[in-house]
Specification:
This protein has helices at 2-16, 27-34, 41-139. With 148 residues, it is mainly α.
Length: 148
């Protein structure tokens, strides 16, 4: 009987470290627990509650990290957009002005080319009769060269 008492005493001390709770769960869940690898319902409930509370701490940490990352992303996007708008606007303005200058220079070059073509044609129109006249003069023989 002493051994049984000591055993009950040990169980009693073990039981005193724990708190007994009552809970109602669906029959299907109870059947699942009975057919699972757990030795007792207490073990299953203890593990589930441990995971729940540890998981909620981890979830809170993840939520905090996600919020921090969202804020960092928002700040990065704002910095990028402000720098892009400033640089893009100034670059676009510079490039548009450069394109306009190049178009003006191209138009001036085209105008000069057309003017030079007109001058060349006018020159050729003036020189052509002179060249024909020279050809005709070259075809005439001089009177003193009749013996040749």
């Amino acid at each position: 009987m002493a051994i049984k008492f000591k055993c009950n005493n040990i169980v009693s001390q073990y039981d005193m470290q724990k708190v007994k709770i009552n809970a109602r769960i669906p029959q299907e869940m109870y059947d699942t627990i009975q057919n699972s690898e757990y030795n007792s319902i207490t073990e299953c409930i203890t593990e589930a509650l441990t995971q729940l509370f540890e998981g909620s701490e981890q979830v809170n940490q993840y939520i905090d990290e996600i919020e921090l990352l969202k804020e960092q992303l928002r700040l990065s996007n704002e910095r990028f957009e402000s720098s892009t708008e400033h640089h893009d606007t100034s670059k676009i303005d510079f490039l548009e002005a450069h394109i306009t200058d190049i178009k003006e220079q191209l138009q001036i070059a085209n105008d000069r080319h057309e003017g030079l073509e007109r001058i060349h044609q006018a020159y050729m129109m003036q020189v052509q009769p002179l060249m024909k006249q020279k050809e005709l003069e070259g075809a005439k023989t001089c009177w003193w060269k009749f013996w040749e």
